[in-house]
Write a structure and sequence with these properties.
Length: 213
């Protein structure tokens, strides 16, 4: 029943999944969201069936949060992560921002507010306990940033259009942190948008490694 699932993260026994494309508003803005499914509901013999989103009055009970974004790409909620403060952080691709959802002790939503902005098109996001920062890719800018717990951006790496064979970024999508390394999957997508650095998908298809101090 999902339309365009992308990111997922576990918080306790609850699985949160972003759905990047739920629908559109009457004025052409993008509707996206996050679903929450409990571990006890998940079974290979009887998979959870989600009903298609129609509007806020006709939606699946598992739809945890919805977001309205500009509609310039038709891709909304994408990357998702949990931080050490126990809250949920969702990256909205087409608006280049991140929202913070405060959770209670039962993983119910208390509030959702914009946490950080200033990127072009966010993709994957992960929080790292050692540095107490988020690491996020900007697919369009061909860049990777860190975000501190106050929402401040810091550019870690960026380069011009490349095929990635020299270790440079090539349409960075997902990101993980392992020790003092930020490991970036180069998605190598090309949407044909004038503000996107990557112009064509091209071999080789690579990962990039960024060393943290």
């Amino acid at each position: 029943g999902l339309s365009f699932p992308d990111g997922l993260v576990w918080i306790g026994d609850d699985l949160f999944i972003t759905d990047t494309v739920l629908g559109e508003t009457e004025d052409g803005k993008q509707i996206s969201g996050v679903y929450k499914i409990n571990l006890e509901e998940l079974s290979p013999q009887s998979p959870v069936q989600l009903s298609k989103f129609k509007n806020e009055d006709s939606k699946d009970v598992h739809l945890f949060e919805t977001f309205i974004s500009s509609g310039v790409l038709k891709f909304g909620a994408n990357g998702i992560t949990i931080a050490g403060d126990g809250n949920l952080y969702t990256a909205i691709m087409e608006d280049g921002n991140v929202f913070k959802t405060v959770l209670d002790t039962n993983n119910n939503k208390v509030s959702t507010t914009e946490f950080s902005k200033g990127l072009i098109a966010t993709d994957g996001i992960k929080w790292d306990a050692r540095t107490n920062k988020f690491y996020i890719t900007d697919l369009f800018a061909n860049a990777v940033y860190s975000i501190d717990m106050q929402g401040n951006l810091q550019l870690l790496a960026q380069n011009a259009n490349t095929d990635g064979k020299d270790g440079k970024l090539d349409g960075p999508g997902e990101v993980i942190v392992r020790g003092n390394q930020v490991i970036v999957l180069n998605f190598d997508a090309a949407f044909g948008a004038p503000n996107m650095v990557n112009k064509t998908p091209d071999a080789p298809y690579t990962v990039s490694i960024l060393e943290l101090e």
